[in-house]
Amino acid sequence: MTNSFAVVADSTDLLVEAFARAGADDSLITHFLGAPDEATMIARTAGYAMVVVNESRLSAAAMDANPALKQILFLGTGAANFVDLPAAAERGIPVHTIKGYGDRAVAEHTIALLFAVWRDIAAQDASVRSGGWAGAPLGELFGKTIGLVGVGAIGGEVARLAQALGMTVLVWARRPVDITGVEQVDLDTLLARADVVSPHLAYTSETAGFLDAARLRKMKRGAVLINTARAELTDEAEVLAMLHDGHLGGAGLDVYATEPLPADHPLRRAPRAVLTPHTGWQSPEAIARLIGRGVDILLRERAALGL
Fold first, then answer.
1. pTM for the whole thing?
2. Alpha carbons 215 and 125: distance in angstroms, whole number
3. Rounded to 10 degrees, what is the CA torsion of 216, 76, 254, 115?
4. Statement to judge: residues 269 and 187 lie in one domain
5. 278 counts as catalytic
6. Do 255 and 183 share a structural domain?
7. Which of 11, 13, 86, 185 has the highest Cβ tally under 10 A?
């Protein structure tokens, strides 16, 4: 290892460049490219006071193998899939996350997927490229109803963008929602009325499987599901079944139960499904905010530890 305070054990060229633009030098952070297995993660993180996690998992074993470890930084909001949070808590190791950096990007991606599904963009593009001239858009979004299940910062941005398109916005949330022009309703009403359903709940043990098979089947026939939040909020197998039996008019998905999505996964062959590789949060602006805030955390914690 170098004398760096922190290490990104699963970095990418994009992250290396972004950290450099944010002013992080070798004294602050070291990068290892590529996704490591557990043994490689242990080797790469040994001796560093802070481990920065991008898309690989930091296990309890990796924590125990590094007695120098004082802090963990996850480059994102939901760390549970990438950091063994109970293990970190048991060992008294703080886990920092970064919120709000990509709210606008994810909201815009939600609307982009909606347009792609509603206007049948992918199928029309494929038809034209293969010499055909066919397409079957669902119609206009103006005057249609979108139902947002959960309304945090991203859901609020989606609500405002949908209103700008002339859509009626229904929301379900556990607490009163203060967004002008939206209608807060119970979940069954939302599922029955919405032409488009888009979950924006934080993923917790309480929200896992929130849109289960029974609730998904309460959606009106022909409605569209857009998911840029977490695959675990829905029943992925039921979504696939509903695409095949026509209950769903389409789906736009950026998140999956297994990522990367396996090459033979049946979703890749599902009708009227537009799939993106969990890139909803990615934009130059969002990445700059993410890494800039990450560097701020690294500098602050290094100073606090006196290193």
1. 0.89
2. 33
3. 100
4. yes
5. yes
6. yes
7. 11
